[in-house]
């Protein structure tokens, strides 16, 4: 018998909830949640559309993983602790193998971060996935984009440009790339641990989805400051550097996007603290530049300012 919408939800998307603040999960018209005293609820939504955010025929398990990972990345960028998610799925057809793999990938990362799926919507149409993530942060401690001050240092977690190189490989524009880079594109790890540690240290924070230059620009605009970053300091893998040299695109890693790393600013007085806490993170944490009182973002290559074309992906331009 064909799978109905309700048996689909039952079979693939109803799991017992673990968070104590959830009194009612999947099954009624709404979920019911209680947020502890002194905490603020941080809410974010991301949509992945076939052939815009991912290629048709992508591994459904990786897709399930990534669709939650990118939403948790937004919570990380606010310093919020992940708690709940809702999932809106639009599917062209009910394909059980696809659904099983998708939900396996989705719940793999959900369980890792102790996130409960508490509701959603299921509709028919061109493949698209929307995840709304809910996290909590002590009142007043969220990491905003608007707090960067002149003299603050700029840092980035992890490596940038890996996912961009993997996309070139998946599109057939380069012959191959390493598995580590394909993993960074298909199953990115949200920097939740870093986001929580940054609550009391960072003056501003953003996650890098559209490319470091574009996303750092959002911090600069919101904070009404400028910045200088140095190309030589950027955490870029050898193979990405090789691609940049070959194609004469020194700014590739800065604009490639899909990194899901955190870019943040800290007052100079917190440098030793950040060096200490970041020791515990299983990814690098790299100083790349400084906030200044100019009104622009300058990129230095051997002391000389260079122009970088393209400022991130924009859907309507
Ligand atoms: P309603 O008609 O009230 O909008 P639905 O029939 O859409 O409710 O959904 C029934 C229940 O299943 C609701 O609790 C809803 O949150 C949940 N739900 C629907 N789709 C999903 C999904 N893809 N993942 C998780 N929960 C879902
Ligand atoms: Mg209803």
Commentary on this structure:
The chain is an alpha+beta fold. It is built from ten helices and 13 strands. It has two domains: 134 residues, 2-Layer Sandwich (60s Ribosomal Protein L30, Chain: A), CATH 3.30.1330.10; 154 residues, PurM-like C-terminal domain (Phosphoribosyl-aminoimidazole Synthetase, Chain A, domain 2, Alpha-Beta Complex). A seven-stranded mixed beta sheet has the order 8-10-7-11-9-12-13, sandwiched between helices. The model has no long low-confidence stretch (mean pLDDT 95). Bound molecules: adenosine-5'-diphosphate and magnesium ion. Adenosine-5'-diphosphate binds next to α1, β4 and β5.
What's the quick description here?
The chain contains ten helices and 13 strands.
User: What structural class do helix, strand and pairing data support?
Assistant: alpha+beta
- Across the major sheet, the strand order is 8-10-7-11-9-12-13
CATH class descriptor name of the largest domain? Alpha Beta
Q: Please give the alpha-carbon distance between the first and last residues.
A: 46 Å
Task: Report the CATH topology name of the largest domain.
Answer: Phosphoribosyl-aminoimidazole Synthetase, Chain A, domain 2
Give the CATH architecture of the largest domain: Alpha-Beta Complex
Bound ligands: adenosine-5'-diphosphate, magnesium ion
What's the overall average pLDDT, rounded?
95
Main sheet specs: 7 strands, mixed
Low-confidence segments: none
Q: What are the secondary-structure elements, in order, as H or E?
A: HEEEHEHEEEHHHEHEHHEHEEE
Oligomeric description of these chains: single chain
Shape: globular
CATH-level-4 superfamily name of the largest domain: PurM-like C-terminal domain
The number of helical elements comes to 10
Question: How much helix, percentage-wise, in residues?
Answer: 25-40%
